[in-house]
């Protein structure tokens, strides 16, 4: 997912009073400060002229990025609000899934919503399209919907989204192969390359089918349009390293984030030398040119749990029935429904009136979009420079 001033890190208030909800899963403010010593050497800052040349040469969506840059600058510095314009919308088409990943929050969602029929779902897509040209279709497992091919086709060809990403566990792709003709990119969740019959977390029953379907997707889409998304836990650090190498060999984009527990980061990973070495390797590979989601700076923040200010309305989440969260899904507050209220803009305005402006997080969810929103708003030029390196 591609990308006003200097980085403006904000400390979380009253951090010492925040209680641990589970051992080793604690607020970001309690992170080990020794991690600060692991920063990479500073690079020469590019001039804005150099950055502009690179953006024009490499980014077909440059107009969108600059439009949002100025719009969000106006909102942040003139209107003094953290409610920024959406860049891409995450749309959950179902809560159902055929797997039971240990870290998944959608198995028993905090707020449940029923799926709409095909026609109403497509109407939701039309309303989303009025405010964003990028959509991420997810679940649950979206390929469990019998109409997912029709939904994807409507998003791409009827609603004309510029970017249509679909997140899947990959087990049913061959049964819903029509989606490969509609998506602009596919994100496949994969946490291990070796199936271990003694370890159910490695999903030994599903893995062979996922690998088989990845070969099908690669043939139809081409490797660069496929992202392998892995969630790092202590049990699979070695497997993630293998996945990183394998993605490089196959030409897939590699993406990683650490597992969360009740929306909190696993601090035990920071004390794990193998995990730290893995993060170093991911960042080094990204600097060397391997296709890896994010920039060295965003990867460092994401995987070493650096502090950041989230702007969740940049990547809003819409549930299957059209409900929209404000300010974000983890806080469980529904501010409106797209079918009833018509637009994200109206829903965010209502949410702000009901719940106030976006508060400082006291327990930050380390998801890529959340981290990216911080750099997009607070360090646009630095982020642009990292992307065009």
What does this structure look like?
With 389 residues, this protein is α/β, with parallel strands linked by helices. The chain has a single domain (83-387), classed as TIM Barrel. Helix content is 35%, strand content 12%. The strands form 3 sheets. A 7-stranded parallel β-sheet has the order 6-5-4-3-2-1-9. A two-stranded antiparallel sheet has the order 7-8. Strand 1, helix 3 (118-129) and strand 2 form a beta-alpha-beta unit. The longest helix has 16 residues, at 62-77. It is globular.
Largest sheet: 7 strands, parallel
What average pLDDT do the residues reach? 83
Structural class: alpha/beta
Topology, number of strands? 11
What CATH architecture do you see? Alpha-Beta Barrel
Low-confidence stretches: 1-43
What's the shape? globular
What proportion of the residues form beta strands (DSSP E)?
5-15%
Give, in order, the helices and strands. Answer: HHEHEHEEHEHEEEHHEEEHHHH
**Remind me, CATH topology?**
TIM Barrel
Rg calculated over all Cα atoms? 20 Å
Determine the number of helices (DSSP H or I, runs of at least 4 residues): 12
CATH superfamily: Aldolase class I
Q: State the distance separating the first and last CA atoms.
A: 16 Å
Strand order of the largest sheet: 6-5-4-3-2-1-9
CATH class, please? Alpha Beta
DSSP helix fraction: 25-40%
Query: How many structural domains can be distinguished in the coordinates?
Result: 1
């Amino acid at each position: 997912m591609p990308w006003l001033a200097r980085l403006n890190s904000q400390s979380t208030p009253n951090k010492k009073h925040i209680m641990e909800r589970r051992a080793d899963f604690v607020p970001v403010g309690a992170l080990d400060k020794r991690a600060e010593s692991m920063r990479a050497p500073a690079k020469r800052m590019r001039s804005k002229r150099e950055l502009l040349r690179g953006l024009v040469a490499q980014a077909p969506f440059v107009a969108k990025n600059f439009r949002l840059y100025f719009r969000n600058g106006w909102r942040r510095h003139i209107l003094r609000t953290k409610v920024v314009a959406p860049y891409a919308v995450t749309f959950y088409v179902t809560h159902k899934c055929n797997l039971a990943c240990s870290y998944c929050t959608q198995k028993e969602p905090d707020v449940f919503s029923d799926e709409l029929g095909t026609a109403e779902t497509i109407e939701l897509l039309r309303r989303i399209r009025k405010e964003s040209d990028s959509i991420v279709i997810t679940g649950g497992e979206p390929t469990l919907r019998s109409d997912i091919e029709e939904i994807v086709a409507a998003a791409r060809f009827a609603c004309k989204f510029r970017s249509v990403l679909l997140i899947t566990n990959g087990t049913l792709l061959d049964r819903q192969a029509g989606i490969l003709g509609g998506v602009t990119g596919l994100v496949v969740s994969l946490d291990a390359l070796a199936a271990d019959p003694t370890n159910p977390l490695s999903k030994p029953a599903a893995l062979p089918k996922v690998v088989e379907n990845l070969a099908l997707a690669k043939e139809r889409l081409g490797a660069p349009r496929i992202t392998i998304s892995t969630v790092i836990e202590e049990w699979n650090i070695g497997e993630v390293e293998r996945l990183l190498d394998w993605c490089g060999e196959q030409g897939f984009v590699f993406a990683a984030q650490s597992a969360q527990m009740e929306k909190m980061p696993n601090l035990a990973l920071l004390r794990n030398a193998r995990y730290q070495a893995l993060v170093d390797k991911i960042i080094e590979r990204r600097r060397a040119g391997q296709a890896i989601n994010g920039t060295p700076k965003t990867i460092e923040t994401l995987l070493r749990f650096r502090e950041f200010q989230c702007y969740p309305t940049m990547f809003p989440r819409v549930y299957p029935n059209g409900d929209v969260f404000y300010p974000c899904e983890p806080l469980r507050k529904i501010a409106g429904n797209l079918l009833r209220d018509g637009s994200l803009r109206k829903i965010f305005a209502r949410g702000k009136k009901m719940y106030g402006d976006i508060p400082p997080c006291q327990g930050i969810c380390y998801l890529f979009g959340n981290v990216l929103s911080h750099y997009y708003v607070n360090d646009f030029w630095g982020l642009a420079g990292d992307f065009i390196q």
